[in-house]
């Protein structure tokens, strides 16, 4: 896995933390939401991950006139055979990049999100499983931009993590500007893993040990969000599960077979950032830091 | 039992064993106070029950048990001459506690046994109220409580039951102390002691025949303890006056009957005197002891004309009284002629040799003082030997001692001297009591033991009154200046505690004695007066029972509050691992590197390592170990790793 991180870091410069988080999200069998302005490398990150992990890749550019069938697939009558043939949509891939997901109508959004959750597609009375591993990276522009349908909280909850890429720092940006074209670099890159090993890794992540005190800690964090006046509503049990799953993956990436409080703290911003809305106008990152500082490690 | 079987849970095996153990613990301290046949019977019943429990046999039939109860009760009635009273009552309880085991099938029966055991734990105080007795009672209470817990829940191990019982009783301790200190005291014991309580007590008797005092010399039982208000007087003044014996029948000295009683002082003392407080052990006789000569009567007592202090009733329990004595006081300067006449009486025909000798002194002397001087010179010349093993004497005891055997104990000396003085026409009498004592270096109390018992004489000289003459001091001055051990010849059997070769034992005894004395003074002797003194020292001048009850309730409430707060605050289980981690953090906090509560172990180690690179490696090793122990799946070497962390933390010097 270290090789994957190193190789990805060679293409997306100065974003090792985000790469790790994205990988953790994938290893925890979650889906990733990247929220940022266009052009900071969201698509490239999705490409890099698919390529390095040896997964097939589809990109869906969401627009406001898109229909669910455009994603899931459509049955077309085959005149020669006299029967309907199902033509799978772009969602039938191992890595799906759902670009600008908040530009689509709620109906289309919810089709995608249902498929993400169920890991299968039901169309015209037949249920078809999606490939495994199945990993959706959705991007959305910040909600205040024009012409968007912001995802409701219940839908946002389907994403295990939300990260922001942010602008590269000065040195990384200079290297990017001076260096070779990223697409060419990517094309020249061999995969580091096979889908089978990735599945095995996902299974290994599930086996990472979470001790009693650590579960206490996760509960204390969730409990604090529910009791605290900092947030409008607290973390759901599903969010607590997500936190623990992501922390397991983070611990596994660090080469440990058990979760530490540090792992929980590392993934916490990505887990709570899109699930909780702070009471005041302060940035979510500040509220998360306050949350960490308010809950002692038991 | 009349309980319906459906409602009565049967005893589990562990509960039966607990009940048996409880009976054994409760009966053990009483065993020495019971008749041997009863101890044997109870032991047999318990063994029988144990055997039945072990072999899982059914319990004996009701008919057999009824027969046993009747036979046992009859035995107790025969032994004590009735079934009512303290001793037969305790004996019956013991019998029932043992026999009840044989019909104990249900948990409810078990509770009855526990209640009986609690009661028997108290009964022990009828016989002994010493520290060991209190400890034995405490043991019974702990085991009884543990048994009660086991009857409620038989799951925990014996050690667990005892621990729980210990914790519960420990929580009850503050209330016990508060009740003891503050509950309004009543004068005297809560229940009257039975008539036979004084038997078996050692002490001076009210008569003196040869051998009466020397048998006390083997006893190191404590007669009384003295606390002087200021510096103690010189040792040769430690004459503790007891019974005064004026009537002599040729062999035995007895006190004068029908002495008028009055209140001291008879004469105005000339100096400040010596103030002290005596804690007298029970000795079953009415007299109180005081240094010669007491100047005032202590509160519950009166005095006789020969300066003897008497309590109003025999001293059957430990008693404390304050006295002031005046060594320079001269008694009886104008003694009544009747009394002086009586102090010259000798039975006709007794001790003819002394009579002849005394007649010779009288003929060659100008007055009583000359006679006294001649007698003292004669006693010195005779070379009398002071010994604990005097030979037996015949009819004319004083004659034989003075002229033939020349060996005697203090009563021989005192008796012979008084006879000689009376024969020479000088009024004389014998005074018994104690001489000497031992200052305990631990608490400063002077302890007087039975082996300090002594007898001396008083002679009356015109114009000077009664003079103390100690004929023992003439022949064996070390008895007065040092102690008994120094005065008797080598080889005489001494009390164990007086032997010089057992210095360590003496030291140990001093310490134990000081502890026992504190127990006597502050626990057993905590009477209304002591309580008042203590409350006064706490700033409560004269609380009545209402104020004390209110204070008691308030303090009990406070104790309950503190205990509750403590229980709620205390974490349920102190994890040894968390303790090590906290210890490490505390130690680093002194360097300004305390762990923040939200900081994980590896983050903490990193921060410490960056701040102090010298300890970075140590810190990382400990943090990794802690993180593994706390957060990884439990491994087989967990105990070792914990030890390793403990050693590492202990040897860590930030």
Proportion of beta-strand residues of chain A = 5-15%
Number of domains as seen in the coordinates of chain B: 4
Named CATH architecture of the largest domain in chain A: 3-Layer(aba) Sandwich
Identify the quaternary structure here: heterodimer
* Strand count of chain B: 17
Strand order of the largest sheet of chain A: 2-5-8-1-9
Query: Greatest interface and its residue counts?
Result: A-B, 18 and 14 residues
Number of helices of chain A: 13
The percentage helix of chain B is 40-55%
**CATH class (first level) name of the largest domain in chain A:** Alpha Beta
Shape descriptor of chain B: elongated
- Please bin the fraction of helical residues of chain A: 40-55%
Mean pLDDT of chain A: 86
Could you state the CATH homologous superfamily of the largest domain in chain A? P-loop containing nucleotide triphosphate hydrolases
Number of helices of chain B: 22
What's the total number of strands of chain A?
Answer: 9
Q: How would you explain this protein's 3D organization?
A:
The complex is a heterodimer of chains A (298) and B (654). Chain A is α/β, with parallel strands linked by helices. Chain A has 2 domains: 2-196, Rossmann fold (3-Layer(aba) Sandwich), CATH 3.40.50; 207-294, Helicase, Ruva Protein, domain 3. Helix content of chain A is 46%, strand content 14%. Chain A is built from 13 helices and 9 strands. In chain A, helix 1 packs antiparallel against helix 3 and helix 2 (16-27) crosses helix 11. Chain A is globular. The model of chain A has no long low-confidence stretch (mean pLDDT 86). With 654 residues, chain B is an alpha+beta fold. Chain B folds into 4 domains: 13-182, no CATH class; 214-498, no CATH class; 526-569, no CATH class; 576-651, no CATH class. In chain B, the strands form 4 sheets. In chain B, strands 2, 3, 7, 13, 16 and 17 form a 6-stranded antiparallel beta sheet that branches. Chain B starts with 12 loop residues before the first helix and ends with a helix. Residues 1-6 and 190-199 of chain B have low confidence and may be disordered. Classes of the chains: A alpha/beta (298), B alpha+beta (654). The interface between A and B is medium-sized, with 18 and 14 residues.
